[in-house]
Specification:
six-stranded parallel sheet, TIM Barrel, 300 residues
Length: 300
């Protein structure tokens, strides 16, 4: 029986990259320690980590580093999706071998497939490992609520879902309603932008980006204590920054890492995104710095 107890704040790690495109392992190790010190309940290696831009040797290095530094203190979730079932199975088995506590997988999306094929895709992967799997429901690779239920019924390892197809709030509510009695555990994503609303609709956790783990832990703690007002106040205070981080086309990867440098987690020069990724201009960076100063986040 797979573990269904995961809950709380599971930030998706950023990959520190230098100007040569190389991983900066010291900064990755520092990020893991910093996240755990901030009180997170788990760590994710996924799309916001740019995991799809790394070769298999680099993927292994990232996961080995995170698992090694973490040393069992919190759960580690690894993205292992692929456009072919056999490839995804190989990535998934390797991640389990290297110590991942759970996997996170999107449906195939390069060539559109009927739901029946993606259910079989998830099912075959689930049969190949002994750890739980998060179905990743994204706007460009969706796991509709009915499909999520079919997956949960297909194999017991398909027992989590990260809901982030917009609008996420009704999507979360519908998924909760349809999945009652299946054992499917719901998490939110999409940068944590609607975390409180999602908690109210059945989500037991959120997977934001790397930059605000402390804030999301405060939101989680306040909601668990029944203080929804305090949770919403934290979200409102940081909403301008959360909005900036929601930008696409690789833009957010640069911004995440810039903030990690400004907060003292990454060393200067470890804030490059893997190409292709649209880079902010100097004025945008100045605007972000001003916002960080107003939120008293610099060096913290």
């Amino acid at each position: 029986m797979p573990e269904r107890s995961m809950k709380g704040v599971y930030p998706i790690l950023s990959a520190p990259i230098n100007e040569k495109g190389q991983l900066v392992i010291d900064d990755l190790e520092n990020q893991v320690e910093w996240m755990i010190e901030k009180g997170v309940h788990g760590l994710g290696i996924a799309v916001a980590t740019e995991i799809y831009k790394f070769n298999e040797e680099e993927r292994d290095l990232i996961l080995k580093t995170v698992v090694g530094v973490n040393n069992g203190r919190v759960k580690v979730v690894m993205n292992t999706g692929g456009e072919g079932t056999d490839h995804a199975i190989a990535l998934s088995k390797r991640a389990e071998e290297l110590g991942a506590d759970a996997l996170m997988i999107r449906p195939t999306s390069f060539i559109p497939m009927p739901a029946s094929e993606n259910i079989e895709y998830f099912g075959r992967i689930a049969e190949s490992v002994s750890i739980p799997i998060f179905l990743q429901d994204q706007g460009t690779a969706q796991v509709p609520p009915a499909m999520a239920v079919a997956c949960a019924n297909r194999h017991e390892n398909l027992c989590y879902i990260k809901v982030e197809t917009p609008p996420t709030v009704p999507r979360m509510g519908e998924t909760q309603k349809l999945s009652e009695g299946t054992g499917l555990v719901l998490f939110g994503g999409a940068g944590g932008a609607f975390a409180v609303e999602e908690f109210k609709r059945g989500s037991v956790g959120t997977m934001p980006g790397s930059t605000l783990p402390d804030m999301f832990v405060r939101v989680w703690d306040a909601f668990q204590e029944g203080d929804e007002e305090a949770a919403n106040a934290e979200m409102r205070k940081h909403s301008p920054l959360i909005s900036i981080l929601a930008q696409g086309q690789g833009f957010a990867n640069w911004i995440y890492k810039h903030i990690m440098v400004r907060r003292g987690v990454f060393s200067p020069g470890s804030d490059f995104a893997r190409h292709p990724a649209l880079k902010p201009d100097d004025e945008h960076y100045r605007e972000i710095d001003s916002l960080l100063e107003s939120l008293d986040l610099v060096g913290k």
